[in-house]
Amino acid sequence: MNNHLDNHIHVEVNYYSFIVIFLVCLAVHVVKSHLEGFCKMITRIRKGCNSEQDKIAKEISDLQKEQSAFNPVDDFAKHSKLQRKIVAKQSALKEAVHQQKKSLRWYTKLRLYIVLRISLELIAVITVWHCAQLPVVVMPDNWFHPITALPSPLWNKGTVGPVAWMISCRLALRQFSNS
Questions:
Q1: Which residues pair with 138 in a beta bridge?
Q2: Is residue 92 pLDDT above 60, yes or no?
């Protein structure tokens, strides 16, 4: 009977640290993977025309008014010449809008990326600091040799601390998202 109790494997888990650190890693992963979508949404919200685009749009409107004064059959040459000018202006307007969106999206993406990364990494550091009093998992020494071979200065061999657990969560989430 006593031999049976000695063979019993005892694993302790600090569920609070386990779950909180995993959720922080999941939040960082989700934000990083959907950053492009966030930037597109913010770009759409902040989108507006600048004075160059307004000028081109007014020129197109003026040319269309001038073109409507000519009969396409009777004044074909003048009508088609104005049509070519309108098409060229519309193309220039599309290009200007595209360049503005591209630069605004890049700028927004850079700012958003910096703000989110700093805030999420700060949350991760605070979480690790908050959960640093206890190891996340305590297991027998011979389990998970690579993880438990380098014990933390705070704990004995066979423990997984918050930093190792966070690294493991991030690697697992990255691996699952690449699959």
A1: 12, 159
A2: yes
